[in-house]
Amino acid sequence: MKTVAFHTLGCKVNQYDSQAMLELFEMAGYEPRAFSDVADVYVVNTCTVTGTGDKKSLNAVRRALRTNPSAEVVIAGCLAQRDGEKLLETGARLVIGNARRGEVVKLLEEAVEKGERVAAVTDILRTPYEPLSISNHEGHTRAVLKIQEGCDRYCTYCIIPYVRGGIRSRKPEDIAKEACRLAQAGFRELVLTGIHLTSYGRDLENASLIDAIRACDAPGVSRIRLGSLEPVIVTEEFVDALKREKKVCPQFHLALQSGSDAVLKRMRRRYTTEDFRRACALLRLAFPSCAITTDVITGFPGETEEEFAETVAFSQEIGFARMHVFPYSARQGTPAAAMPNQVKRAVREERARKLIAVSNELADAYRASWVGKTVEVLLEETDENGLIHGYTAEYMPCAVEGGTPGKLCTVTVTGLHQDGLIGTIQE
After folding, report:
1. CA pair distance 250, 358, nearest whole angstrom
2. Count of Cβ atoms closer than 10 Å to residue 220 Cβ
3. Which of 7, 238, 258, 259 gives 35 a disulfide partner, CB atoms 3.0 to 4.6 angstroms apart?
4. Rg of the chain over all Cα atoms, to the nearest angstrom
């Protein structure tokens, strides 16, 4: 039997796409292997959001060919979409980018049969929503469900619209079918994801993100978690509708990127810090203990010490439960890469370190606020010490003694444990 191994970099959308391709290989008779094992085929689903993503993607290809020099390598994802035929120089048999992934097995086997190296990268701006689907996931209790593809925001620093294409939304009835399949497979939590989730439904008639959420409310699903949103979607009407969907997790990832209005304008983000502040207030009014998480870029071109200080102060004011902080990485072909006053790498990285320290303080304070309170924990796996680990609805790790993986339990939080909580299951 032929074997296949996957390595996925980047976002949850990539995780979903990899699972969909893996299931296509399995249906064609391939047996999955770990990426570190010897396999007949290696698929690297790449990321190009940052230079680090590029390097990790190429390193994964080289690692695969070191493990089995005679293996066939498929390169998919954003770096493949961007660099196309150039990546054939790595020794890959097939490069497919972010389209035709549903044909991955056929394209690979045809290339092998003909003895050719093929770059089947198509114009992503003219590609409709590709109807990939999954029925399983590598997670224990949580599955990613992709409902949207592409972005048309064209923020000045971002390469994604160029490699993912424009807005394409999945129909609610297709979402509902997949939600049922995943629920029947035992997944209790569904994570709705997309490249620009805020734009879901703009290309459909009479469909909104709330409709997509409702489509996921299948028997057996206990939680519906939202991926990254922009504050512009958080209106009173949206929050009122969200509150009526009782399975929605009170954890909201609002992408900030900078706490300085001047920097936001240069980034071409379509909101201000006041818009962001208002969105957080609306969410906290409806979900008083919700976790608000975010992304922040440090050292964007032209960012002054004063503008960075504004970001620090704004982050402390909002009181994020968790922050993903990373230094700006120039992407060739984006407007920001050609901007004047590029910030030195050492400064970008030093600012990231400072903001990560602030992030850690905020995360510690948020976790500490839960000690003595009651939470719902979806248990996932047992560690070597016999503790069972899971996540609260706010996406905080929580460890307990006893219980059964896959079960949703009521837990009294007794203290802090590693980067999360520890508690006792209520009888």
Report:
1. 23
2. 13
3. 7
4. 22
pLDDT at 427: 74
For 198, phi then psi, to 5°, come to: -60, -30
What pLDDT does 385 receive?
A: 84
CATH classification of 374-425, choosing from 2.40.50.140, 1.10.630.10, 2.40.50.180, 1.10.10.10?
2.40.50.140
Task: Report whether CATH 2.40.50.100 matches the domain 142-368.
Answer: no
Which pTM was predicted?
A: 0.93
Give the 3-state secondary structure of the chain: CCEEEEEECCCHHHHHHHHHHHHHHHHCCCEEECCCCCCCEEEEEECCCCHHHHHHHHHHHHHHHHHCCCCEEEEEEHHHHHHHHHHHHHCCCEEEECCCHHHHHHHHHHHHHHCCCEECCCCHHHCCCCCCCCCCCCCCCEEEEECEECCCCCCCCCCHHHHHCCCEECCHHHHHHHHHHHHHCCCCEEEEECCCHHHCCCCCCCCCHHHHHHHCCCCCCCEEEECCECHHHCCHHHHHHHHHCCCECCEEEECCECCCHHHHHHHCCCCCHHHHHHHHHHHHHHCCCCEEEEEEEECCCCCCHHHHHHHHHHHHHHCCCEEEEEECCCCCCCHHHHCCCCCCHHHHHHHHHHHHHHHHHHHHHHHHCCCCCEEEEEEEEECCCCEEEEEECCCCEEEEECCCCCCEEEEEEEEEECCEEEEEECC
Report how far residue 186's alpha carbon sits from residue 140's, in angstroms, rounded to the nearest whole number.
9
Query: What is the 3-state secondary structure of 193-210?
Result: ECCCHHHCCCCCCCCCHH
Q: CA angle, 366 as apex, 383 and 15 as ends, to 5°?
A: 55
For the chain, give the number of residues: 427
Q: Is pLDDT of 381 > 80? A: yes
Interval 207-244: pLDDT, tens: 999 999 999 999 999 999 999 999 999 999 999 999 99
Q: Amino acid identity, residue 175?
A: I
Give the start-to-end residue ranges of the domains of the chain. 3-122, 142-368, 374-425
The whole-number pLDDT of residue 139 equals 67
Which amino acid, residue 51?
Answer: G
